Amino acid sequence: MYQKYIKRVLDLVISILLLPFILLIMAICGILIKLEDGGPVFYCGKRLGKDGKVFKMYKLRTMKVNAPDIRNPDGSTYNAEDDPRLTKIGKFLRKTSLDELPQFFNVIKGEMSIIGPRPDLPEHINYYTSYEIKKLSVLPGITGYNQAYYRNSVEWKKRLQNDIYYVENISFLLDLKILFKTIIKVLKREGVNSEHYPEKRMIEEVGSRK
Questions:
Q1: Are 62 and 93 in contact, with CB atoms under 8 Å apart?
Q2: Which residues span the domain enclosing 116?
């Protein structure tokens, strides 16, 4: 009942109520992004959604235009505090998670939930085990179990294990815990980077990265 109906209603009500504040913050951030390098305000990246459907996830751009796509050895997105690809305002947006605000529009469109597993890149579906693919049985979230407790401080396969734990234990109480834990994590700016990886690899040159 909660997962099938109530969760979606709460997503819509909360997103619509927050919309005026989200638009105001996005407008301010957008001006700062434009003033820094004149590039696009938004980054739209393809992500895996529920049942493996690919959708465009919205973010405020935090990287320089035409920055190279760098991945960790496990194929996950590389994050580091000293990442030279980040713009000045981008570093602030990443630390405060304000770059994720446009995803409330994904929530309103029904492509995401406020709370759920963070969406992976489309090619990651090729690396899921038959058990891990269970992650795709629910809508991905703006924040989730990983974001609340670890953020980017654990490797991708461990994140998948945590995602499955969430899928198998979805409840209003768990979502509430995740929400408050996420707020604390963001305020403390913990686990923002994935610097536990000993090396990184460049995948390809792409335009207008995150």
A1: yes
A2: 2-205
Q: Number of folded domains in the chain?
A: 1
Q: Residue 6: inside a domain, yes or no?
A: yes
Q: CA-CA distance, 23 to 11, in Å (whole number)?
A: 17
**113-115 and 141-143 beta bridge pairing:** parallel
Cα separation, 19 vs 2, whole angstroms? 23
Tokens matching residue 189? 């700016």
Write down the residue that tokens 């570093």 correspond to.
91
Task: Give domain status of residue 210, yes or no.
Answer: no
- List the pLDDT tens digit at each of the 210 positions of the chain: 898 899 999 999 999 999 999 999 999 999 999 999 999 999 999 999 999 999 999 999 999 988 887 777 766 677 776 788 999 999 999 888 999 999 999 999 999 999 999 999 999 999 999 999 999 999 999 999 998 988 777 888 889 999 999 999 999 999 999 999 998 888 876 655 555 444 444 434 333 444
Asked whether residue 64 is domain-assigned, the answer is yes
Q: For residue 154, tell me if it sits in a domain.
A: yes
Structural element, H or E, at residue 42: strand 42-48
- Round to whole Å and give the CA distance between 54 and 50: 8
SS3 for 6? helix
Tokens of 71: 């991945």
